Amino acid sequence: MNCKNIIKELSNYLDEGLDSSLKASIEKHLEHCEDCRIVVDTTRQTIQIFCNSEPAPLPDDTRIRLRDALKNRLRRTPA
Amino acid sequence: MNPIQPHPLPSQVVKDDEPVLVAAAKAGDVSAFETLVGRYERKIFRLTQNITQNREDAEDAMQEAFLKAYEHLGEFQGNSRFYTWLVRIAVNQALMKLRRRRPNQVSLDEEVDTGQETMPREVEDWGPSPEERYGQTELSRILSGVIAELEPPFRIVFQLRDIEELSTEETAEALGLSIPAVKSRLLRARLKLRQKLNRYFRGSENS
Fold it and tell me: What is the DSSP secondary-structure string of A17-54?
């Protein structure tokens, strides 16, 4: 296992999509390669930051227009 | 340093009462559908904004997605989650808007250069809690900014996999891509975003 292979398997490793022997050899590499460890860790954080981010509330005018569009459609006929 | 733990499986987006609300909406309960809209409107608007990168298009695509979902509710079989089904409708609406504006730039299924992945050049720790370094509004602005810099094929795959938490298979199906294509675009997107966020989160700025 070298650094290039770590990058290649990075997504599968983070998504827990690897068999245990490949996972173990990645972790063995990470134990002694600080650069790879940082790349893995900061990529994991990247995913988590996006995944945890709360969507902003709808702007008021956007919400009003959505409500109006739905009201017109929903109250007209059943689905 | 402790060994790195793989990131946990995505959190559960969908609440338990969703099937009940969907069944009620299918049976004609308008308020049940409105509850579903209220629950997902923010996420769907963020999705259509991130895809179209245009406020007006994003609003139209969101509205059309909810109206289409309502009109086709009878066809929803419950084989997938309602939210996943809604996301697929919204992605289609948003892509139509994007293609209309940029007809030559958006072809999701053609080969894109995912590059030969090499070791990233900028390798620095981010410090303990990068998210806490910025307020909620500022963080949202940073995230929207860096994702907007990605080319559409990467941006959209990342959006579906890591923000909307669709599976690789669901993402492939929603975009008409093969699973290897989703995986290679996702890896590239994650690495690009990591590098872009590095500007904001690297530990040296904190010291």
Answer: -S-HHHHHHHHHHHHH-HHHHHHHHHHHHHHHHHHHPP
